[in-house]
Amino acid sequence: MANPFIHVELNTTDAAKAKSFYGKLFDWKLEDMPSSDGAYTMIEVGEGTGGGLMKHPVPGAPSTWLAYVLVDDAKAATGKARSLGATILKDVTEVPGKGWFSVISDPTGAALGMWQDKKT
Q: If you ran DSSP here, which 8-state letter would residue 15 be given?
């Protein structure tokens, strides 16, 4: 399938509380990763789409889950989204050694992340 959902990320107001809750609720493996802009926790779920958890980067914003879709070219996909009426919430940004992502808001106001893997 083209452009599958590949990652789901929790942007939370309280990372410690969220990790405690989800660690007890589900049989997820939570692994803290080094991050240039604060703590990031990878969520390994076994089968299915994994994700991550981090303190919400927007002060005062509520906790929310954000889905990411795989794209071949983050810059092109972000530009296409803009041309179709999306608002760019986070322009294409590199995650060193991993790939690139952007976050858009579609014309109805729904947020969506796009992810491009680094080619090895």
A: H
pLDDT in tens, 30-39: 999 877 666 8
Identify the CA nearest to 105 among candidates 51, 45, 60, 61: 61
Handedness of CA 20, 26, 27, 33 (dihedral sign): negative
Nearest one of 116, 29, 19, 23 to 68, comparing CA atoms: 116
Which domains does the chain possess? 1-65 (3.10.180.10), 71-120 (3.10.180.10)
User: For residue 92, which of 67, 63, 71, 119 has the smallest C-alpha distance?
Assistant: 71
Say how many residues make up the chain: 120
Helices and strands in the chain, H and E counts: 2, 8
pLDDT digits (tens, 9 = 90+) for 37-62: 668 999 999 999 999 999 998 889 99
Planar angle of CA 33, 34, 35, nearest 5 degrees: 110
Looking at the DSSP assignment, which residues form a beta bridge with residue 53? 10, 41
The tokens 């071949």 sit on which residue?
72
